[in-house]
């Protein structure tokens, strides 16, 4: 009885706190979008990778590398005829120190685009562990490559290669899918082996596995990563974000929190990729649209989808599963099947299976606020 | 060179039939016609309203062997079929093709395999798989090939039995360099997992006919199907036989130290524990060895009631012979790989009474099966076994989907994914589950009087636990203990 009373009291407090706290505040919604497809000069519409690099946007497609000049909107592209070592580009990262563009090639290994020419590393001429590369990340002088048979690290100064597999890292499986570096830690999303964290300072590994150890269930929502088949991991503000084909989750160093379609605004549990903007905001590339958690504490999301029959789109703001607002707009995403996301400054870049969508973040703000008037004039908001 | 020869063989078979007028495209049943109506004529942005398979129970799992059965899980996966929501259905059918290429990837050449525990060892299985697939292609070509285009089918054959990751390179080639419309393969589950990761990215359907690793299909990929009963189903049946029917309480496991052995026994271990009889001992051995005394010493010390082996036929026979030589009389249970002439020959009289899980019933009376055996023997001068038979079914499923859906990878996927009726295969009816896994019945193969006899749960009167009709997250916990 005592517990019942306490629970009832807590529930009452929570309910009354909602309107007074975040209840009337809403997240930023992108209503200004630009689209790029083969009609604008992209070599291919199927875009596996996107990387915003100051005045440029780099795109890895199923048939070539492309670069969009942000100021002019002009597209330049490179295919195998132009020296690109292999047509399918699945990962891109830029070395901020040198400006070199590093490319993960799907079946072609690793390439560096520097000074207008390509250099190529593959299984037969280097220490790259496998040519089926899914992701690439620059870490100081090193370049990490996530491949289907382990991870490789290339030191661009010493030209030394290191290989990480089940023999020298806690990889239950070696099927690497995503790699990212930030704040002294490399994170590998490994299909069947969860997330591996490599501490650059200590050279030590730490693994994050699904605590229930079962493929067919998630026993408790917030006990760890939602599933061992992971697709991407991002670390920012000392928060680890993880995407999987079964849902997504977040770890702040103390507590895990999982988000499923059934309890959040994420449009699908099938997440191809993710990009975190902060510890409070992350973007998920799903097979049914773009999901963005904009405020963790209140589980507030914005979901972007395009209408399949018209050149219009919408954003739906939700809290838990309650729709707070629907913002109708012109064309936003180029397709609802999304493969990758990038974020830079106020803008977002969405790689889809049918072109690139660029969300222009004029007036962007993080978290929740009273909605600025400018947003309502760009989109048509309705409850 | 081998690929070239195979391609030429298939083409030659087709050319031989060139003079014949092609038969009309096979008529689609009403359900298939409805799927075609929904997937044809879509823009790249539209997703068809296909009836997704929805199930209430994953893999016919009884409540008493469900993981964490006393707890209601927050989320249960694999009950609703995955969709493909990309733009692929709008890609037009190409013109001017000289053949319709279907990929085959399997262990057909001897090599070194870190993935499988050292020396490669699955070529004997892979070669039979190739023959089964080849026969299906040749028969389709004899009937006119790809009927809409009057062009032959051609198999693009690749070996996967290399170092870890080589499968990925091969599937990339099939997806992009010399494109295929669909892929059949493979056996080793490490290679299978690598292959399906590529198939997902490249958006090409892959049907697996020889990998019984339960986790293969538990990856939530909408581009993957399997037409062979997996080790989860075989494991459930073996456990039900050993524990529920025979009352064995102490089971020992000896298995190959590779992925096949590790994942193959997982459901046996888990189910035994959940039924209150945890496996007494599990010993792994390195594939290719001849002496199992270390493992058998330990197992013998544990005084077990029955022994389960999960590995290849060669090691299975060696272990059995060494067990019997040291006086170990426990019943011997194995995975389906022991159901082979190699095992019987090497085990000799010790094979008597051995029981194996088996993914189908080769004793079934079925004219299709008889005709397949006749055709296979005529073509290859040998009897088809399980890998050939399942590959024959798998390739026929792909050919059917291509004939119905046309030359469009997404539509080929849709046809496989939405097939309403079980596939009438030579290995039996193949109903696909929500995760596009073979949800059909599995069997026990018992060796006696010089032959294997295949018996069902029903004929052996093997009891099973309560299989609920509600999913775990929406039903009460009370059923968990029934």
Structural write-up:
The complex is a heterodimer of chains A (383) and B (482). Chain A is mainly beta. Chain A has a domain at 36-289 and 347-353: Methylamine Dehydrogenase, Chain H (7 Propeller), CATH 2.130.10.10. Helix content of chain A is 7%, strand content 50%. Chain A has helices at residues 2-23, 373-378, and strands spanning 26-27, 32-36, 47-53, 56-61, 64-69, 75-78, 89-94, 101-105, 109-114, 117-121, 133-139, 142-147, 150-155, 161-164, 175-182, 185-191, 194-199, 204-208, 217-218, 230-236, 239-244, 247-251, 256-259, 271-276, 282-286, 289-295, 300-306, 312-319, 322-330, 338-344, 347-352, 355-360, 368-369, 380-382. In chain A, strand 9 (109-114) and strand 10 form a beta hairpin. The longest helix of chain A has 22 residues, at 2-23. The two termini of chain A are 40 Å apart. The relative contact order of chain A is 0.13. With 482 residues, chain B is of the alpha/beta class. Chain B has two domains: 2-230 and 365-430, Response regulator (Rossmann fold, 3-Layer(aba) Sandwich); 232-358 and 443-466, Response regulator (Rossmann fold), CATH 3.40.50. Chain B is built from 15 helices and 17 strands. Chain B has helices spanning 2-15, 30-39, 123-142, 166-177, 189-202, 231-245, 259-264, 266-274, 293-301, 313-325, 341-347, 367-380, 386-405, 409-418, 457-460; strands at 75-76, 100-106, 112-113, 118-119, 153-159, 183-185, 206-208, 224-226, 251-256, 281-285, 306-310, 332-334, 355-358, 423-425, 428-430, 443-448, 451-455. In chain B, strands 10-9-11-12-13-16-17 form a seven-stranded mixed β-sheet, with helices on both faces. A five-stranded parallel β-sheet of chain B has the order 5-2-6-7-8, with helices on both faces. Chain B has a two-stranded antiparallel ribbon with strand order 3-4. The longest helix of chain B is centred in the N-terminal third of the chain and has 20 residues, at 123-142. Chain B is globular, with a radius of gyration of 23 Å. Classes of the chains: A mainly beta (383), B alpha/beta (482). Chains A and B meet through strand 19 of A and strand 1, helix 4 and helix 5 of B.
């Amino acid at each position: 009885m005592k517990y019942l009373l306490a629970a009832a009291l807590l529930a009452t407090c929570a309910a009354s706190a909602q309107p007074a706290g975040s209840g009337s505040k809403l997240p930023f919604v992108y209503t200004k979008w630009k689209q790029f497809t083969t009609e604008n000069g992209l070599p291919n519409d199927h875009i596996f990778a996107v990387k915003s690099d100051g005045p440029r946007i780099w795109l890895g497609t199923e048939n070539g590398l492309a670069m969009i000049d942000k100021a002019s909107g002009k597209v330049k592209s490179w295919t195998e005829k132009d020296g690109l070592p292999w047509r399918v580009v699945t990962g891109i990262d830029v070395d901020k120190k040198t400006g070199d563009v590093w490319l993960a090639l799907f079946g072609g290994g690793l390439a560096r685009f520097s000074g207008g020419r390509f250099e190529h590393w593959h299984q037969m001429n280097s220490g790259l562990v496998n040519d089926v590369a899914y992701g690439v990340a620059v870490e100081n002088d090193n370049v990490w490559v996530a491949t289907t048979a382990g991870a490789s690290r290339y030191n661009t100064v010493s030209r030394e290669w290191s290989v990480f597999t089940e023999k020298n890292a806690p990889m239950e499986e070696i099927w690497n899918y995503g790699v990212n570096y930030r704040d002294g830690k490399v994170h590998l999303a490994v299909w069947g082996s969860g997330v591996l964290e490599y501490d650059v300072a200590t050279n030590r590994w730490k693994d994050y596995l699904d605590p229930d150890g079962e493929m067919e269930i998630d026993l408790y929502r917030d006990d760890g990563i939602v599933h061992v088949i992971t697709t991407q991991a991002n670390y920012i503000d000392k928060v680890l974000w993880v995407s999987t084909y079964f849902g997504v989750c977040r770890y702040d160093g103390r507590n895990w929190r999982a988000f499923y379609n059934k309890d959040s605004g994420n449009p699908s549990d099938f997440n191809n990729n993710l990009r975190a903007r902060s510890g409070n905001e992350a973007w998920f590339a799903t097979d049914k649209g773009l999901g963005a958690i904009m405020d963790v504490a209140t589980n507030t999301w914005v979901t972007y989808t395009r209408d399949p029959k018209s050149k219009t789109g919408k954003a739906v703001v939700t809290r838990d599963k309650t729709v707070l607002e629907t913002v109708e707009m012109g064309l936003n995403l180029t397709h609802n099947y999304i493969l990758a996301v990038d974020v830079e400054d106020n803008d977002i870049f969405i790689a889809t299976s049918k072109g690139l969508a660029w969300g222009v973040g004029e007036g962007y703000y993080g978290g929740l606020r009273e909605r600025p008037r400018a947003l309502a004039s760009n989109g048509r908001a309705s409850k | 060179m081998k690929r070239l020869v195979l391609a030429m063989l298939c083409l030659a078979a087709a050319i031989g039939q060139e003079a014949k007028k092609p038969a009309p495209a096979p008529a689609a049943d009403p359900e298939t016609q409805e799927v075609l109506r929904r997937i044809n004529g879509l823009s790249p942005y539209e997703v068809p309203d296909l009836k997704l398979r929805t199930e209430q129970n994953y893999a016919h799992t009884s409540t008493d062997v469900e993981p964490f059965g006393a707890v209601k899980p927050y989320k249960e996966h694999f009950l609703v079929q995955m969709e493909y929501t990309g733009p692929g259905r709008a890609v037009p059918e190409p013109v001017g093709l000289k053949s319709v290429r279907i990929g085959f990837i399997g262990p057909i050449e001897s090599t070194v395999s870190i993935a499988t525990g050292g020396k490669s060892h699955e070529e004997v299985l892979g070669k039979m798989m190739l023959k089964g697939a080849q026969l299906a292609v040749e028969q389709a070509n004899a009937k006119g090939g790809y009927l809409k285009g009057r062009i032959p089918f051609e198999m693009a054959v690749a070996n996967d039995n290399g170092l870890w990751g080589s499968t990925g390179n091969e599937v990339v080639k099939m997806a992009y360099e010399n494109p295929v419309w669909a892929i059949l393969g493979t056996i080793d589950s490490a290679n299978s997992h690598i292959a399906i990761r590529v198939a997902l990215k490249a958006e090409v359907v892959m049907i697996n006919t020889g990998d019984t690793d339960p986790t293969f299909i538990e990856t939530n990929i909408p581009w993957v199907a399997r037409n062979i009963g997996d080790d989860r189903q075989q494991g459930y049946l073996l456990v039900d036989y050993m524990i529920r029917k025979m009352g064995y309480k102490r089971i020992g496991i000896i298995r190959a130290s590779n992925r096949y052995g590790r994942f193959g026994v997982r459901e046996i271990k888990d189910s035994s524990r959940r039924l209150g009889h945890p496996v007494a001992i599990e010993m792994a051995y390195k594939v290719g060895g001849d002496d199992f005394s270390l493992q058998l010493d330990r197992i013998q010390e544990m005084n077990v009631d029955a022994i389960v082996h999960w590995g290849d036929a060669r090691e299975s026979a060696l272990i059995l012979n060494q067990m019997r030589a040291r006086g170990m009389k426990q019943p011997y249970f194995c995975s389906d790989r022991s159901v082979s002439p190699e095992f019987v020959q090497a085990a000799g009289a010790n094979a008597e009474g051995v029981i194996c899980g088996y993914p189908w019933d080769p004793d079934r009376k079925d004219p299709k099966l008889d005709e397949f055996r006749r055709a296979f023997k005529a073509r290859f001068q040998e009897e088809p076994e399980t890998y050939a038979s399942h590959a024959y079914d798998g390739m026929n499923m792909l050919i059917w989907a291509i004939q119905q859906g046309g030359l469009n990878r997404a539509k080929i996927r849709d046809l496989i994914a939405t097939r309403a009726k079980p596939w009438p295969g030579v290995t039996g009816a193949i109903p696909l589950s929500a995760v596009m896994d073979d949800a059909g019945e599995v069997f026990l193969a018992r060796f006696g009087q010089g032959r294997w006899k295949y018996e069902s749960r029903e004929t052996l009167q093997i009891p099973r636990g309560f299989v609920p009709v509600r999913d775990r997250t929406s039903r009460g916990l009370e059923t968990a203990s029934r």
